Hints:
The complex is a heterodimer of chains A (678) and B (472). Chain A is mainly alpha-helical and 678 residues long.
Amino acid sequence: MRGLSTHFFVHAFACFCLLGNGNGEKASDHWAFQAVADPELPRVMDQTWIRNGIDSFILAKLERKGIPTPDRAIKSILERRLSFTLLGLPPSMLDPKDSLLEQLEELLASPHYGERWGRHWLDVVRYADSNGLDENAAHANAWRYRDYVVRSFNEDKPFDRFITEQVAGDLIPWNDDFSVRRSNLVATGFLSLGPKLLAEPDPVKLEMDMIDEQIDVIGRAFLGLTLGCARCHDHFFDPVSTEEYYALAGIFKSTRTMESFKRPAKWVENLLANSEEQQLSKKHQDLVEAQNAVVVAYRERANQELLASGKFNKLPKKPEAHYPEPTRKILENLEKTLKHFNGSSPQLDFAMGVQEGNVTELHVFVGGDPETRGEIQPRGFPAMFAAYEATNFHSGGSGRLELAAWLNSSRNPLTARVIVNRVWRWHFGRGIVETTDNFGLLGGKPTHPEMLDWLASRFIEEGWSIKALHRLILSSETWRMSSGPHSIASEKDPDNRLFSRSPVRRLEAELIRDSLLHLSGELDLALGGSTWSHENRKLVFNHTSEDNTNYVTNRRSIYLPVIRNNVYDLFQLFDFPNPNSMCGDRTPTTTPQQALYLMNSPLVRQAALGFSQKGFGSDPKVRIQLLYNSAFHRDAEPHEIRQSLRFLESFSSKSEPSDKWHAFAQSLICSNEFLYLE
Amino acid sequence: MSTNSDSRLLSRRESLRNGALGFGYLALSSILGNATLAESFVAARKPLYRQRAKRVIFLFMKGGPSQVDTFERKPLLNRDHGKPLPFAKPKVTFAKTGNLLGSPWEFKPYGACGHQVSELFPNVARHVDDICFIHSLHGTNPAHGGAVLKLHTGSDNFVRPSMGSWISYGLGTENNNLPSFITICPTLAHGGVQNWSSGFLPTHHQGSSIGNASIASGDARVRHIANAKWTANQQRRQIDLIRELNGRRRMNFSSHPELDDRINSFELAFRMQNAMPEAQDVSSESKATQNLYGLDNPVTEDFGRQCLMARRFAERGVRFVQVTHSDNKVQWDQHGKLRNGHQEKASEVDLPIAGLLTDLKSRGLLEDTLVIWGGEFGRTPTVQGHKMDGRDHNPHGFTVWLAGGGVKGGFRYGATDQYGYYAKEKPVHLHDFHATLMALLGLDHEQLTYRHAGRDFRLTDVYGKVITDIFA
Lengths: 678, 472
């Protein structure tokens, strides 16, 4: 057996070689570890273009490069951009008479906003409704965490509070308001959602892998740091030592994520009932048991009477059949009542999450090998920035509350920068720091470092409000730029690193599906709840490859179950992130398999059919306009109408006259203008 | 080796190629001429290994066939049947096992090399002179899920691209109308898609699955390959309209070449609709060829069809074809009833595999096609089950064999101990196996990297030793 200690040397060597090719920057000088500054706005020549600070930072760089002040996109394009960005839905629900700023407020107040932005967050926390990995067991209660995230975005929960709830929700005071308690318990599902090797026969490996996954997701989601590297050796690029890794790991070793490590291992599910509900449930259980006792006793007596009657020497197989009529009636009634009691017992809710465990300090596992123990590490945090007084664990608990405080500390330079950059990425398709999940020495450098800090400062100033950040970004002139073509900008800023024009982005997988269903009028906009009935912990795929997933629903895409190792095919094809690991930066691809899907899948065919019936019976030109308006949010130009008519006339169809409209509608759906956002 | 280009640069370059089903890394590097990648990978250094195989057919025996009952004869195991194992069992085992269990099958020597094969594989046995046996493979994970993932992706605890995807990334495709990586009737359990996933590599290196393990191979199709509504002519008109719509001035962004690429992806998909069913259709094969694969016998028909399809894909330039022997049970997983179970499984695959080898050889394809046979682990020489007639999972020493593609025929490499428990002589870890596989394809496992999440990843992580001794 190859021990992990071998891994230490070889991996360490490989990393060291990599370092040789790095830029040799010292960790203490690294930009991301410096305190967040609040820089002055730069001076620009064209003051008329400036709506807020963002524009100053952007235009200053453009002017320096000799790139002309960008054009603004026309309103219909901006409406489409706004609606897809904020709600993930086509702009049909906007009132075109309203100004953009009014529309912006309407959309921010919509409950569908949380569905769109909650889904972004679910990418970051590797959300899934099944375990994946080796044993694909159902996370039947994970949806409660998903709904919690949607709610949190809709309520504009301060982001620091949002972090605390996810890391230590079970430890936050709730002042006798059990709805708060419930929500906080659900939030800790964040720590438990990762894939676990449930059939791993070695419980130590299972637990340490799980803790590693927790540390990895916390590091990358909140700090943009790959802390997991330090499991086997001091991090070669970022200032995290193996000792610090095990100091952090101690916090999770002191936390209870697993109920049992016995194969198949079981994760913890927290009971979401207050004492009243628990009492009620207990009372009901007592009632059921009492009634059951009555049924058993009555049956026993009836049997004895039957034997006493002398008709049988031993009890017949189905004694009920031989009871006298009145006895049978009474028994039936008693059983009916029992059945009713059984069916009406109050359901107690559970949610994946964590609990406090036994406080434990870990030894360093040299080279990641639990067999080779180094010194004991008291729990604590990496000292890369002195954000928190070292190892001051007052609560006597696992230390997760202290961890949350460390993450949210005003002296922590990463947390605010990382989330502000994520929000920017989700608006513009690329972060100010391109590597959204890596702010370490191997990550990208910010293209606009001052703007990043300025935004982070505003964000903190506004009480970590994501909606306030949206208002800032969406009211900027930068956000309103057109997508081109700009010959000078393309030449001087070919990769658009200076944000000299609005990027053209393909709609994400969920937006494609929701738009298709919307076009055909089938989209069900109901909010929240579970959409997948599968017994908790039961395998989605057992040994038989029998598929227990079910994607048949017209609800919005965020409500489709995310089944690891069997993600919905449209999602897989259109770059939905692999739900086994966190991802803040989806990479769009173009593949022939996508084209096959658009050409041949029942979903697209069905949607195109429904869509093609718009304006049925009206003049073809009117009908073409209607279809153009729904698909592209604009009118068809005269030459486009001519082109469309040519297609409709020449489309041979032996079967139905409606076929040509169906085929036409499908082509609109397959076009770039439908699938891309300017 | 790290290049100065980050993954973004690569992915941007690749996006230019996305419309094509995927040029490989080597091909891409040479296309880019003096660009960074080419400098670092091709131009500056001669590949360490000559390309001995151009493509791979991997015959995956799901569940874990027993090495001591198939291809590695252990006389002492039969002599000491019923006695305790004279040395320690592994610290972590999947389940408890008892004393030694002799093999219920006779072995006899075959071919010029005289390699001993059990009665389970009388047909494959006739090819031993073309086969290179590795008897000392070992992994670490004794559970199906972990072991299947480790075999396919090199990792049982992290999400990594599968070996087929790495090879597609390294070499690209020889046929632009078919995917470069195809997996026929794969199992959806124990990692499922993860086992043919491209992970963080560009998506077009993802394996295209044809059906799954619970579907008869005759009914297996790539999803969405056929249109239920439009004729080819009608689809042609649709694609022409899409081209016109995309060509319009307002979406003609000079800086977005990937938008132009979309139309190419439709053209390719259009061609794939013909190429895929054509490649899958075995009815054009002669009766003799069909029978060679056992298509005339219900026992061998299902797996035989998979093998024949695999040959047809290989012939058409698909880089990596995986054939999975599994149905609605964990095929080779005999914790009990070893005799019946292994006999039944072997009779389903023995003839088709022999047929595949014969067919590849007679067509001259075996020279540059590497055929791999193996499961996710082997089985214990010690007994298990209420009736004392089964074997447990054993990742500590088991057999895989290779044929064609530049390996020595009639050759055996490494061995387990006298009873068949641990890889003892010249142990080959799964990482070494992956490294060797890549070397046979002319790829250097240490050089074929992809920058993701801040570091360069490769199939073999930080391990892997190429076993050059098996090269012909």
